[in-house]
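Usage

Read records sequentially. Each one opens with the input sequence:
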Amino acid sequence: MGQFSWFTQDTHHRIINDEEYTVIMSDDKGNKYEEHCYEGYGVFGGKDYYELLAEMNGYSLDDFNGDKEALRQKGIDLAFDGHPHGDNPNVKHPSLTEAGVYWNGKAPESDPDQGWLEEDEWDDYEFTDDNY
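and closes with the structure output:
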């Protein structure tokens, strides 16, 4: 699995790996997946962002003989098709927000640092036993 991260769409909060911070991923059917400490691999509340993207665009596990990794790869392919930041406007994207609001399929902004802290951010980060 690759590292992926974004900014929340409603508050523009950078989703940092291992930060205790609640992010809600929502889809076009009203489903919500709540994550309290993002690990950096695209999973929110037990649901993979790219699997959900593929499902929102008409694909299912049945299309890939139950292979979740193939479904996830299809979502990645859809998101990045001709768009190096994974923000293909020709497909529906899950929303990533604090409030759990669906943003009509618009892609969240990708974090160029993939959720990793930059050197100057380490001083401001509060370390606990859970995230260190």
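Summary fields computed downstream for this record:
- The CA atoms of residues 87 and 107 lie 5 Å apart.
- The chain has a mean pLDDT of 90.
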